Amino acid sequence: MTQQIIKSDFIDHFLGLNNSYKEFNTIIFTSSGNLKRGYESEFVKILNHNPINEVEIFTVDKYPDLNLVTEVLNKKKNKTLLNSLVLSIGGGSAMDIAKLYSSCMTESTKTITDISEIKKDNENQVLSIAIPTTSGSGAESTKFTTIWDEKNKQKLSFEDESMLPDFVYLNPKFLVSLPKSLTLSTCLDALCHSLDSLWNKNKTPESIQLSIEALEIINKYLPLVLKDLANLDIREKLLEASNLSGQAINISRTSLNHSISYPLTSLYKIPHGIACAFSVVSIIKKFYKKINKMPGGNLIIESGNILNTLNLNEDFENLFGQSFDSTDISKIVLMNSRVTNFEFEISSKDLNEIIQNSYNLYSSN
Questions:
Q1: pTM of the predicted protein model
Q2: Residues of the chain falling short of pLDDT 50
């Protein structure tokens, strides 16, 4: 089934889906914050029109780790999956967990210790609808999911074509409650998806075009949304950009700046989007001449200039005053398979230099 993106009249679409089945056994993955905002209420009300429908709400308030993935996949074993529906309302964490539930399984009931224990569930593929409430992760556009191995402080990725949600509802009304800090972090994630897709060995003409379109929007509207958080028109543009950049990395995967971000998040609790932005300016400086000749190179350089105006120093406070060792970070980065997607040759010395220069940039201002 080809994914369908619905930008308007999504409630009418949902009503149509609901009327085409006698019963929906529905599980909704969302955050506690989104429950407080009542984002699920319209959908639950429609589902409850049919008294035989069953609706369960599962809250996701952290990055998915192996324990959470185990819990969710074991929950699926105890469900009646005929005419089932998975609805994810949230950012990347809620959508990633929903994608695993809709498409995957584990044979054991014990805690998953290795990503190889997750399997495609060929017999129980569940209809999936994704509703992003941030303009950042692009998870609604991708066939992979991020899982955190807290024990080994590593980011893992599971991939399968079946995890791409069947339907996506893009509506900016779900974004207006995002505070400035989350707006910034999630928009930076989308920006870095585009960058990582452009300086990538696996890029294609399609992924290049998607990334360029996304960067054009983000470079224009990111500074504006930070001054006007309630502007629905701006939110709508950035939501579209997030979706485009998600489509781009669905083709190319991520590369260097995402690889650098993961230890910053796992070791220092830097929010994902902020952590992704950490190395961008230093990467551009290191490879400026090559980047300037790339398709979209002018937009990449413009993005770096915008980052320099955002005063991100406070966002990296967790790094300062701690034992920060760029060499140790580099070793962890090199363990991530996505770092090899970076288009330009980079040595461990180059990587260490980029990380240290990034640290110096944000600790000195």
A1: 0.93
A2: none
